[in-house]
Amino acid sequence: MSNSVSALNGASATGFATVRDMGLQGMITVRGDLSATAVKQALASALGGEMPGAGHINPSDSGHTAWMSPDELMVLVPYASADAKLAEITDGMGDTHHMAVNVSDARCMFAVSGDDALVREALAKLMPVDLSSAAFKPGQFRRSRMAQVPAAVWMAGPGEARIVCFRSVAQYVFDLLKGATAPGSEVRYMA
Amino acid sequence: MLILTCPCCGVTGEETEFHGGGEAHLKRFGPGSTDEAFHDYLFSKVNPKGVHLERWRHNNGCGKWFHAARDTVTLEIYGTYPAQTTEPPQSVKDAITAKRPGWSWREFA
User: Fold this and answer.
1) How far is A67 from chain B (nearest CA, A)?
2) Does pTM surpass 0.80?
3) Looking at this predicted complex, what is its ipTM?
């Protein structure tokens, strides 16, 4: 069996904040009527934790659950357990109309860490989103774009941002983040 | 720069997060209709100065289509409303009337 690696295999770059490819991350996309009782029950028993409200990400028993759109969730689990978790979700759903797919190898995840204001500033250079600490708090989840490609972002904690994008644009996103955190390019707008 | 609020996911973003989808509330004419009706459906789009109703898609977000009422002169957004409607809701009409009394757009006013 070939050895699975993430798109950039753990690459990192350090400027005024540290950019890091987080390696393999299990991701399952679930689509369906999220307000339907059968769907809610299946997800609650398979994932645990509270289901996230619109635009939020909540911790689950083995990772996180993020709200992607009115009919879509993204389930973050350890890479090795993605297939098992997917089977658990599918079993729980039974005949309920839904779609659940393991998309771990189609996406990649980055971390930007450092001083909270500087991390937010680096992302704000790339995304048309108000990332000030007053407007974008830990627990919120925002899908938008990063320069020319779609990306989702959330704050795992103060000074700890997480970014999810498609694997095919991983190098592009890494280079963007590296450029945005280049030493000497601090704007200190949010400081 | 247009500031749109997606009625599906509630996110307020600027226009590069969205993508315009042309005129709203088109009535489709296909097989069985007259050539003239089909031609008008395909090509006769309004290009107003002022109030305009359009379709937009939140393509760098939740991916859903919705409707937006905007002003092509001032670039303000009067309101956004779900795609599953055949005419703008009263609240959007009222918002337009407040700024542009006596407005009309195709059959709506």
Assistant:
1) 10
2) yes
3) 0.87
Q: Which of B9, B14, B17 sits opposite A69 (nearest CB)?
A: B9
What residue in A sits closest to B16 (Cα-Cα)? A128
Interface of B with A (CB under 8 A): 8-11, 13-14, 16-17, 59-64
Which of A102, A181, A106, A187 has the alpha carbon at shortest distance from A150?
Answer: A106
Looking at domain B3-99, its CATH architecture is 2-Layer Sandwich (3.30)
Q: What's the pLDDT score for residue B85? A: 95
**Do B24 and B46 meet the contact criterion of CB atoms below 8 Å apart?**
no
Give the residue from chain B lying closest to A71, CA to CA: B62
What is the pLDDT, as a whole number, of residue A2? 85
User: What pLDDT digit, counting tens, does each position of A26-45 carry?
Assistant: 999 999 999 999 999 999 99
Q: Is A16 helix (H, G, I), strand (E, B) or coil?
A: coil
Q: What are the structural domains, with CATH classification, of chain A? A: 12-23+106-180 (3.30.1360.120), 26-105 (3.30.70.1520)
| Domain coordinates in residue numbering, chain B | 3-99
